[in-house]
C-alpha cells in the first residue's frame, strides 16, 4: 500500500527545485481524469527528455476504497507520549492512566439536608449548631439534637438527620434547653427519621484508591470536577496532537468579496476550530505561495505531530504536494481515495515518522479529507477511541457513484419532523431511527450544504441509486460543542 519516494527508489537525494526536474515516466504516471471510471486509464504522456521541465506526476489511479483509507489513516500513527498537566489544562484530552480517588467521597459522614442531626428517637433536647466546614469531636448523646447544615460533618453518635421542614422547636419556660419534635405534617415518617436517613455515609461514592474513570476516558467538564472532588490536582493525559496547517493557493484572498479571478480562503477559518473539535491543537495557519521550494521547506521544517496541507493535490501546473513529498522521500500511505468529493486526498509518512494529510483545495473535498483521513488519525494520536459507526435511513433517493463512495451533507430528522414524508412506516420511526435528508449545494467546491448539515451520509458505490429508506452510515459533524 505504501509507495516510497522516487528519490529513495533511485538511492539518491535530488537537489534543486521540484519544478525543474524531469520525472521518469517508465513507471507510467498515468493521467486519470477526475471523473473517468476506474479501469479506463488513458495512456501516459510520452517520456520526457532528462533535464527538460516537467509537469508534476499525478497518481491517484482511482484511489483506495473509502473504508480502507479510513483504516489506513487510523493505523498511520501511534498514541503520543502521556504528560501530566494541572487539572484545567487537561480538558479535552484523554486519560492516559485511570483516575483514582485521593480520598474517600464523601470524606466523612455528611448531612444531606439542612435540619438537625439527632441521636436516637425523639423528642430531642437541642444544643449547638454545625455548619459545612466545621467538625465537632464532641459526641451527640442519645436524646439530643444539634442544628446542622447540608454538607456539615455529622457529630459522632448522630443516628439520622431530621429535615428543617420536618421538625419544630419548643421552648419550655424555665428550661435552659429547647426541645425538638417531629412535625408530623411534614415528616416522611411520623415516628421520626429512620436510622441513617439523610446521611451521606463516608465512602458512599468511593474509597481512597478506587478507580473512578478508566484510561482512555475523554476529560470533559464533569471529569475535571470529579478529579477535583476526589482530591486530584493533576491528570496524566495523552496530549492533543499539534498540527501545522499549510494553506496553498496564490489565488486566495483574506478579506472582502472574491474579485479579479481570486477567491476567499475558506479553509483558513474552517480548519482550526474543526481540528480542535477532533482533539487536535492547530498551530498558526500558514498561507504558502504556490511554490515547491516554499512547501518543501515548510513541510521539512515542521516539528508538529501532524501536518495538514490544503490544495495542490491534483494535476494542475502548481499542484506541488505529491512531487514535494516524493522529493522529501515520504512514503505515500494513501494516494487518492475512491470518494467523492475529495478523491485526490492523500496521506503520507515523512522520514521523521511525522504523518501528513494532503487535503484537496475544493472546500467540501477538504472537509471530506478531514473526516476520512484526519479524524481517524487524530483519534489514534490523541488516544481517543474510534466511535462506533452510526446509521440513519435516507429520506430521499441519492444517486450512487459507480465506483466511488459518495459523502453527502444531510440534515437529520425524527420521522415526525418530516411532515412531507408519508410513506415511512411508523414502525421505522418508532424505533428511534434518524432520517437523513440530503441537502442541496453539496458540490466539491461548495460549503453551503455542509454549513447547515448535521452529518455526512456515506453512500457506497454501486450501479443503482441508494433509495430512500436505505440505511446508510453517517458521519456526525462533531463541531457542535465549540
Ligand atoms: N486533471 C485533473 N484535475 C483535477 C482533478 C483530477 O482528478 N484531474 N481533480 C479535481 C478534484 S476532484 C479536486 S477536489 C481538485 C483538487 O485540487 P487541488 O487539491 O489541487 O486544489 P487546488 O487546485 O489548489 O484548488 C482547487 C479549487 O479549490 C479552490 N481552493 C483552494 N484552496 C482553497 C481555500 N483555502 N479556500 C477556498 N477555495 C480554495 C481553488 O481556488 C480551486 O478552485 O482538483 C480537481 N482537478
Ligand atoms: O470530486 Mo473533487 O474530489 O472535486 O472533490
UniProtKB/TrEMBL annotation:
Stretches assigned to the MoaB/Mog domain: 244-380
Any Pfam family matching the protein: MoCF_biosynth
Regions of compositional bias (Pro residues) in chain numbering: 43-59
Keyword annotations from UniProtKB, A to Z: Magnesium, Metal-binding, Molybdenum, Molybdenum cofactor biosynthesis, Transferase
Compositional bias ranges of the Basic residues kind: 1-15
Gene3D superfamilies for the chain: MoaB/Mog-like domain, MoeA, C-terminal, domain IV, Molybdopterin biosynthesis moea protein, domain 2, Molybdopterin biosynthesis moea protein, domain 3
Pathway(s) per entry: Cofactor biosynthesis; molybdopterin biosynthesis
InterPro entries, sorted: MoaB/Mog-like_dom_sf (IPR036425), MoaB/Mog_dom (IPR001453), MoeA-like (IPR038987), MoeA_C_domain_IV (IPR005111), MoeA_C_domain_IV_sf (IPR036688), MoeA_linker/N (IPR005110), MoeA_linker/N_sf (IPR036135)
Domain of life of the organism encoding this protein: Bacteria
Catalytic activity: adenylyl-molybdopterin + molybdate = Mo-molybdopterin + AMP + H(+)
Region Disordered: start-end pairs: 1-69
EC number: 2.10.1.1
Family assignment from sequence similarity: Belongs to the MoeA family.
PANTHER family linked to this entry: GEPHYRIN, MOLYBDOPTERIN BIOSYNTHESIS PROTEIN
Function of the molecule: Catalyzes the insertion of molybdate into adenylated molybdopterin with the concomitant release of AMP.
Name of this chain's protein: Molybdopterin molybdenumtransferase
Organism for this UniProt entry: Streptantibioticus parmotrematis
Amino acid at each position: 500500500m505504501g509507495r516510497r519516494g522516487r528519490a529513495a527508489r533511485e538511492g539518491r537525494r535530488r537537489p534543486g527545485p521540484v519544478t525543474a526536474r524531469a520525472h521518469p515516466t517508465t513507471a507510467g504516471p498515468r493521467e486519470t481524469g477526475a471523473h473517468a471510471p476506474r479501469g479506463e486509464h488513458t495512456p501516459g504522456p510520452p517520456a520526457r527528455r532528462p533535464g527538460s521541465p516537467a509537469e508534476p506526476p499525478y497518481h491517484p489511479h482511482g484511489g483506495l476504497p473509502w473504508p480502507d483509507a479510513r483504516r489506513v489513516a487510523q493505523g498511520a500513527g501511534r498514541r503520543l507520549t502521556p504528560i501530566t498537566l494541572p487539572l484545567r489544562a487537561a480538558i479535552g484530552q484523554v486519560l492516559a492512566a485511570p483516575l483514582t480517588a485521593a480520598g474517600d467521597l464523601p470524606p466523612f459522614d455528611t448531612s444531606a439536608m439542612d435540619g438537625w442531626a439527632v441521636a436516637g428517637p425523639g423528642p430531642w433536647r437541642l444544643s449547638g449548631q454545625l455548619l459545612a466546614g466545621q467538625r465537632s469531636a464532641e459526641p451527640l448523646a442519645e436524646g439530643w439534637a444539634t442544628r446542622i447544615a447540608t454538607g456539615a460533618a455529622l457529630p459522632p453518635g448522630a443516628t439520622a438527620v431530621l429535615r428543617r421542614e420536618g421538625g419544630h422547636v419548643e421552648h419550655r419556660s424555665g428550661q435552659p434547653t429547647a426541645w425538638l419534635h417531629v412535625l408530623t405534617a411534614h415528616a416522611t415518617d411520623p415516628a421520626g427519621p429512620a436510622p441513617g436517613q439523610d446521611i451521606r455515609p463516608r465512602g458512599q461514592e468511593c474509597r481512597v484508591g478506587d478507580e473512578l474513570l478508566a484510561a482512555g476516558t475523554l476529560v470533559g467538564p464533569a471529569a475535571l470536577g470529579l478529579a477535583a472532588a476526589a482530591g486530584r490536582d493533576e491528570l496524566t493525559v495523552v496530549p492533543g496532537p499539534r498540527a501545522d496547517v499549510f494553506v496553498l493557493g496564490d489565488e486566495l484572498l483574506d478579506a472582502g468579496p472574491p474579485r479579479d479571478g481570486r477567491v476567499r480562503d475558506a479553509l483558513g477559518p474552517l480548519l482550526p476550530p474543526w481540528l480542535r473539535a477532533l482533539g487536535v491543537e492547530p498551530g498558526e495557519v500558514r498561507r504558502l505561495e504556490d511554490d515547491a521550494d516554499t512547501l518543501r521547506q515548510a513541510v521539512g521544517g515542521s516539528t508538529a505531530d501532524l501536518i495538514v496541507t490544503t490544495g495542490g493535490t491534483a494535476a494542475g501546473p502548481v499542484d506541488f504536494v505529491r512531487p514535494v513529498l516524493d522529493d522529501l522521500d515520504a512514503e505515500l500511505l494513501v494516494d487518492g481515495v475512491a470518494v467523492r468529493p475529495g478523491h485526490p486526498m492523500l496521506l503520507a509518512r515523512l522520514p521523521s515518522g511525522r504523518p501528513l494529510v494532503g487535503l484537496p483545495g475544493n472546500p467540501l473535498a477538504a472537509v471530506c479529507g478531514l473526516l476520512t483521513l484526519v479524524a481517524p488519525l487524530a483519534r489514534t494520536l490523541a488516544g481517543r477511541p474510534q466511535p462506533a459507526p452510526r446509521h440513519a435511513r435516507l429520506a430521499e433517493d441519492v444517486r450512487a457513484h459507480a465506483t466511488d463512495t459518495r459523502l453527502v451533507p444531510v440534515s437529520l430528522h425524527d420521522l415526525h419532523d418530516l411532515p412531507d414524508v408519508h410513506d415511512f412506516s411508523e414502525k421505522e420511526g418508532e424505533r428511534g431511527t434518524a432520517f437523513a435528508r440530503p441537502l442541496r449545494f453539496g458540490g466539491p467546491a461548495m460549503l453551503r450544504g455542509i454549513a447547515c448539515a448535521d452529518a455526512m451520509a456515506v453512500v457506497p458505490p454501486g450501479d443503482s441509486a441508494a433509495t430512500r429508506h436505505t440505511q446508510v452510515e453517517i458521519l456526525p459533524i462533531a463541531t457542535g460543542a465549540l
